[in-house]
Amino acid sequence: SIPLSFFAGIGGASRAGVLIKGSNYMETLASVDTVVFDKTGTLTKGVFEVTAIHPETIEPEELLHLASHVERYSTHPIAVSLRAAYAHEADDCRVEAVEEVAGHGVRATVNGHSICVGNAKMMESIGAAWHPCERKGTIIHVSIDGVYAGHIVISDVIKANAAAAIDALHKNGIRRTVMLTGDAKSVADQVAAELSLDEVYSELLPQDKVAKVEALLRQEQGGKLAFVGDGINDAPVLSRADVGIAMGAMGSDAAIEAADVVLMDDDPLKIAVAQRIARKTMRIVR
Ligand code: ADP
Ligand code: MG
After folding, report:
1. pLDDT by position in tens, the chain (length 286)
2. Which fold has domain 49-155?
3. Which of 123, 155, 183 has most ligand 1 atoms within 8 Å of its beta carbon, as the pocket-test mutant?
4. What CA–CA distance (Å, rounded) separates 259 from 169?
5. Model's pTM, two decimal places?
6. Which cell locations does it reside in (predicted)?
7. Considering only the top CATH level, what class is 4-45+158-285?
8. ipTM of the modeled complex
């Protein structure tokens, strides 16, 4: 039978905004010594603002227009943000054959033209000659019929509690804090430095994130590994970790499903809170 103090611990955690899906995860949480974070939507807000538009062949407004139409059906934070930046109603664009490529971007046919919207990897995969560009932000490249058409610079902000969250984990005795991201190295390194993360790995595809977590799991010496994500592209990593922690408010349904622990208000500081509750509960149980 499950000791009563587990229920008290799970109840206490839920009052703090942390949903723990079972007593076994309480035990795992108590022995976590590595916390691996996804970047977008987890340590950053996942709400991007357009900070610059650099077209090569068309007007700036037209570049944003094309990108936001290609992103019409995507739930990725970048897509949501680009749509919000192009608020023009009622233009009758014909968008067909939409295909989202995880870790790359989205391609679609708009009014008969093949448009790709994504990162450098995506441009390289179709042979469009993108140019090295401004590094202050996440770069979204656009191609029209295989020809490079320019890029949009967008930028996200770090969550208010992110630095305090990393600090609290280090104070709780966490051995390593790691960030994994599909975003560019320049953006990733800046966020990692600002938050004093121990390690950062960038430009990863979703399958690279799984491989990285597996490598980190092999390096564990008796401790447990937690992965924290919003589930956009990272549901497989959430299930691979010893304990998968999902953002509940902005996160995807797939994440909430795949996770063992859900942070109801997306506050990364709650990871340290959950860990303290778990350790206290385990001291009572043992
Ligand atoms: P993160 O690891 O930061 O959560 P993702 O793995 O979701 O990021 O995406 C990695 C990169 O792939 C993004 O930084 C972006 O360059 C590109 N990308 C992914 N989805 C889209 C999209 N819908 N539109 C444009 N670019 C995208
Ligand atoms: Mg993500």
Report:
1. 677 888 888 888 999 999 999 999 999 999 999 999 999 999 999 999 999 999 998 999 999 999 999 999 999 999 999 999 987 766 778 999 999 999 999 999 999 999 999 999 999 999 999 987 767 899 999 999 999 999 999 999 999 999 999 999 999 999 999 999 999 999 999 999 999 999 999 999 999 999 999 999 999 999 999 999 988 888 899 999 999 999 988 777 888 888 999 999 999 999 999 999 999 999 888 7
2. Calcium-transporting ATPase, cytoplasmic domain N (3.40.1110)
3. 183
4. 20
5. 0.92
6. Cell membrane
7. alpha beta
8. 0.97
Distance CA 83, CA 249 (A): 20
Task: Find the 78 Cα to ligand 1 centroid distance in Å.
Answer: 7
Query: Cβ(26)–Cβ(9) under 8 Å?
Result: yes
Atom of ligand 1 nearest to the CA of 77: 23
CA 142, 148, 154 angle in degrees (round to 5)? 35
> So where are the chain's domains?
4-45+158-285, 49-155
b/e per residue 199-213 (b: at least 16 CB within 10 A): ebbbbbeeeebbebb
Q: What are 135's two structure tokens?
A: 């590094």
Mutate to test the pocket of ligand 1, among 38, 40, 130, 230 (most ligand atoms within 8 A of CB): 40
Pocket of ligand 1 (CB under 6 A): 38-40, 71, 74, 76, 78-79, 103-106, 117-119, 138, 140, 181-183, 232-233
What the block records as the tokens of 244 is: 């998968």
